[in-house]
Design brief:
29% of the residues lie in helices and 28% in strands. Helix 1 packs across helix 9. The longest helix is centred in the first third of the chain and has 18 residues. The protein is of the alpha+beta class. The protein has three domains: 115 residues, no CATH class; 65 residues, Dna Ligase, domain 1; 108 residues, ATP-grasp fold, B domain (D-amino Acid Aminotransferase, Chain A, domain 1, 2-Layer Sandwich). The protein is globular, with a radius of gyration of 22 Å. It starts with 7 loop residues before the first strand and ends with a helix. The strands form five sheets. Strands 16-15-14-17-18 form a five-stranded antiparallel beta sheet, with helices on both faces.
């Protein structure tokens, strides 16, 4: 098979704007794409992979009933928040959970074992890169400025930290995600301001992640793809949005910014530290012009950044997956 005919695997939920935009870019370039959700395996998607003890590795097929991809021909993999494999209801517990874990491990690890295939991002590295406490260590080692932070379940330690900071504090989740509250509805636990006078023994109920409040001129969603970085600015016009812009999209004004060379270099070091090539970074830019790193989501959203700013982020994804270099 010629290099031009080798397919890119796009593994994502069916309703994912970022994946849609990348697939569109690849289609415009006549790059073959096989898109599927891991949730369709094993009921609608068939995997057959064999290893004959040679250096070529796993060979076989992926077949979704409409299109077939030979594993040895896969050019690149775009792994974009797919669902987990779904096992037939006819399989009772605990075997259903066991079967789901088997299917999950088989699909991911066979693809991850394909030699020389580039990923955005390999989930094995992605999971480690998503850990917020470690991110602060990596960020400082890579040359980024971070807020003073405390993770604790000790009320006395929280009060001591507040006294040391002697400035407004925020509390944020250590682990992202949404909480299901009822059928069809979920709750996002947002970053919020806290008053140390309210600290009591309820802090002992779980780990709390406290940070000093950073004075912001504006915020930046920095999207990195390979060596390329894109800066989308968020100027918030309400107190709610200023604390956590995800809670008040109606009071955000969007723009673009050229990422300073030192920040771009530090971001590239950060990606290399984790062995990933993509990240959605959140920064605050202070009135003095200092960039302060909050966190990186290695599977973060970015379609809204491109839609509001025209930054060519989808094209950068397609370049990387296609193997185009600047």
């Amino acid at each position: 098979m010629t290099a031009a005919a080798r397919p890119v695997l796009v593994v994502a939920e069916q309703l994912d704007a970022s994946a849609d935009m990348v697939v569109d870019q690849l289609n415009q370039r006549d790059v073959p794409v096989i898109r599927f959700d891991a949730a369709t395996f094993p009921q609608q998607l068939t995997l057959t992979a064999g290893h004959a003890g040679c250096e070529a590795g796993w060979r076989g097929i992926l077949d979704d009933g409409r299109r077939t991809a030979r594993l040895e021909d896969v050019r690149a993999v775009y792994w974009r928040r797919p669902g987990r494999p779904l096992i037939a209801d006819t399989v009772p517990e605990p075997y259903r959970t066991w079967a789901q874990n088997q299917a999950d491990a088989a699909l991911l690890n066979v693809l991850a074992a394909l030699p020389g295939v580039p990923w955005i991002n390999n989930p094995h590295a992605d999971r480690i890169a998503a850990h917020k406490p470690q991110q602060l260590v990596a960020a400082t080692r890579c040359g980024l400025t971070v807020p003073r932070s405390l993770i604790t379940n000790d009320p006395a330690a929280a009060r001591s930290f507040a006294k040391q900071i002697d400035a407004p504090l925020i509390c944020k989740p250590v682990l992202g995600g949404r909480l299901p509250v009822e059928a069809g509805r979920s709750l996002m636990v947002a970053t919020h301001h806290v008053d140390p006078r309210d600290f009591d023994d309820s802090i002992r109920l779980t780990a709390h992640y406290f940070q000093e409040t950073v004075e912001k001129d504006f915020e930046v969603r920095l999207v990195a793809v390979g060596d390329r970085v894109f800066g989308g600015t968020l100027h918030t016009t309400s107190a709610k949005a200023a604390t956590d812009w995800r809670t008040d999209y109606e009071h955000i004004e969007y723009g673009t910014i050229t990422v300073p060379d030192d920040i771009a270099t530090a971001v590239r070091r950060f990606l290399a530290y984790y062995g990933i090539v993509f990240g959605s970074f959140d920064f605050a830019v202070t009135p003095a012009g200092e960039w302060v790193f909050f966190e990186n989501n290695p599977a973060g959203t970015w379609a809204w950044v491109e839609n509001r700013t025209a930054l060519p982020i989808a094209a950068a994804h397609a370049d990387y997956l296609q193997g185009v270099t600047e």
